[in-house]
């Protein structure tokens, strides 16, 4: 049988069903009496358990086959000796004479049999297993005692002076006492009754006596058999209940010991009367310090769990049930959370006696929920707020009930040159870099706003409240400056930058979607402006985005409907001014906008992935046109990095060459340095495959990207193209461009490569690049790009070309889109500068202005210049400044990088 902890185990059934439970008294309202009665109940329960344990150990009840086996002889059977002595004494008094000597002998034998039975009972109880010899002696003891008792009364009546009435009374008393002492032992009771009445019948010696004994014996057999069946069923039921009780106790004990849950009980005052040992171990307090204290002392009902405190206090005071109430443990060693259940308990008189309940450990579940919440709210890599949390923050600000509380600013950041770090150092280095970027962002922004990571190398900063544009600009400048400082990643020095787009609510949007979209447009504008700068949103950006989307749609139609064309710009031999070949340049005659510059639609094609389809078409079209030209004329076609990474590129080129039936060496592929950013075996394999096809390879725009001499060592280039940025300005005094061109041509000559100088437009530039050793020349000095028909016609006229152009180049012009205010007399006019040089600018917005008209032009708050019109056509005019403007000044750099609408109050300055 399962044991029970006497100090702690409390049976709920016993509490509600025991007839002697002190909680049933009507004076239950008296607190002091209740405390005493509660202690009494606990003591009685402990005593009951102890009695059962003692009884089991004493041998009166022993476990056998999950049931119970009663010993043959009860341990208190010897008490019948007292009855024998008293009955003899009473007989002597009632008969007024001494008992006959046989009665004396019977008395002595009966008392001796009683004490012998006592010895037998003790040995039987001490025996762990059944002993047949002891059982025989036990049955003999029962028979001997009852025979002596019956013989004394029968002999005294038959041969002495004791009246039959008193003898029968004594025998009935002896029978009743023996039956009571042999409760639950039907066979023993039967033997005891027969042995008690048999001497009377024998001594009577009549047929009637024997017949009566037989009748009584038969009746007793029937009654005994029936009683044994009842006793057997009762015993089986008791055994089943005991097994069920033991099983329930074992299950509950295992439940507690495994830590899956625990139990508690309080009295009517809310003081603990029972608590599982596992909870006491967690609280690290002895039982004496816990039992008798309030249930609420088990929990830390501080500020974090104030809701749990109010709920628990309500249920305890209202005596109502509660379930799955989350509370924090008062354990000081570690943070633990519990879920507790409870219900009020009542006795059979419906008096409230306290609460009983259970609890389970919620710690791991709580930690898991916190981890899930952290993952849902924060970026796992940097620890910054993630996209979801920043969106919630922005939405909360924009939905504030008060209008002034809806003001905020959104700064979208994108890291410049981050992809290069990932490609060269690997993604682990990129992750380490992102962590350092996050730390710098948090340090720079501080308490001014929330910093979040949207994913990849994109970040977001939300500054609540109305913030001045100047302060936002300063914050953006500080962020760019901080993020542009060198990093140390895996022992290597890494330098990146950042571009920032800024949108302000409610000026630039009143919803989170519109605000993010406009900040994103500002970010693109900052990137397009040269990166490493910030840009405020303006309505022009939205218009430009819509225009870009429409341009993408039109470009798709042009690709599918054959709306693109190839134009060819001649490439001239420097030594004899004959045509060496052509460079194929893409042109698009838009149905409504006319001819569009490749600089306008090529970026769209690259961003949307259309460049691959355009590139394949250009290769096929160039090969077809090349087939109509003389055998000694080549054609160069630009290959985008995306197209170069396509493993099918050699197959596409091979098919185009075979279809045109031309010599592969007549096709020249111009490749930029960006293909080397993914410096892997695939790049080398692609170069090898292209050379196997037989085409020529040219390194385009050399010196403008991440130039490395390693490219020339690894890649089998046939030509180096010197970017036009080195050619322009090379003739100016103090320019270093000439030295760079000389170095490139010398390097190419040493490696057996040709060199082409691009963008030659003036005679002095032509003379310079020719003198510096360039083998080929390309630029307007000889010809602009020609259509396929014009190129064929030009070749039919001969391959000799004559240089035509200005002697020298005009001053550098800065392209921009800048709103300005022009004042003439008392009139104010709004305009926009399209491009600007140190001596003048082109202005849009004023129609048919007479040349010679003088203006004051407010370019910014601080930059106001005097100018006059030198030409005018429709809504455009050229103006010449009275004094040259320093294009490298800080003011001009801010003008070039800021929003077109940033200086909205320049009208006052004008």
Describe the structure.
- With 910 residues, this protein is an alpha+beta fold.
- The chain is 48% helix and 21% strand.
- The strands form six sheets. Strands 15-16-18-19-20-21-22-23 form an eight-stranded mixed barrel, surrounded by five helices. It has a six-stranded antiparallel beta barrel with strand order 25-26-27-30-29-28.
- β22, α27 and β23 form a beta-alpha-beta unit.
- α4 packs antiparallel against α5 and α5 runs parallel beside α7.
- The two termini are 104 Å apart.
Shape: elongated
Portion of residues within helices: 40-55%
For this entry, what is the oligomeric state of its chains?
Answer: single chain
Mean of residue pLDDT values: 80
* Coarse structural class: alpha+beta
Low-confidence blocks of residues: 1-68, 901-910
Termini Cα gap: 104 Å
Tell me what portion of residues adopts beta-strand conformation: 15-25%
Largest sheet: 8 strands, mixed, barrel
Note the topology:
Elements: H1 12-17, H2 31-58, E1 61-64, E2 67-70, H3 80-95, H4 101-126, H5 132-159, H6 164-181, H7 186-204, H8 207-257, E3 262-266, E4 272-275, H9 277-283, H10 287-290, H11 306-318, E5 322-328, E6 337-346, E7 352-361, H12 363-377, H13 387-398, E8 408-416, H14 418-425, H15 427-445, E9 450-455, E10 458-464, H16 469-483, E11 487-489, E12 492-494, E13 497-505, H17 512-528, E14 534-536, H18 539-561, E15 564-573, E16 579-590, E17 594-596, H19 598-608, H20 611-626, E18 634-639, H21 641-644, H22 649-660, E19 667-672, H23 681-693, E20 696-702, H24 709-714, E21 719-722, H25 724-727, H26 737-750, E22 754-757, H27 763-771, E23 776-777, E24 786-787, H28 788-797, E25 813-824, E26 827-837, E27 840-844, E28 854-858, E29 864-873, E30 876-881, H29 890-897, H30 906-909
Parallel strand pairs: 13-14, 16-18, 18-19, 19-20, 20-21, 21-22, 22-23
Antiparallel strand pairs: 1-2, 3-4, 3-7, 5-6, 6-7, 8-10, 8-13, 9-10, 11-12, 15-16, 15-23, 15-24, 16-17, 25-26, 25-28, 26-27, 27-30, 28-29, 29-30
Helix pairs in contact: 3-4, 3-5, 3-6, 4-5, 5-6, 5-7, 6-7, 7-8, 14-15, 15-16, 18-19, 20-22, 22-23
